[in-house]
Amino acid sequence: MPYRILTFLICAALLLFSSVHAGDNNRLTVAWLENGTVNVWHSGDSAPTPHKVPDTISGNIGQLLISTDGQYVAANITYPGSLWLVTPTDPELIEAVPNQALPTTDDPKYIRIDNLQRGANNTFYFNTANHP
Q1: Where are the domains of the chain?
Q2: Which pTM was predicted?
């Protein structure tokens, strides 16, 4: 019984002293993959903005993650591992982290971006993993 009370107090303290802020983004942003394009829609837009996915990575997008300000979308490519960005000004995805920049072990094609997370000021964090 005392452990339940202690656990409750620790959880309450964590909730009170930790908070997650979405930066200055006060608009809803939605991103999705459809028919070889990454579509990005912001509240107030009449239609989504399509961003063409290069044929070399089409079908290999494992995750889309929107930046805290809603301006950028990171596309985590599963095979071969790389990171591409959707920017507000470019109609196509831009390769931010090529597979060759990732650390290699046995075979570079098995190195992938893992645990992609967003940070403040349009920053994305990730680690790498070997997935043969």
Answers
A1: 26-130
A2: 0.74
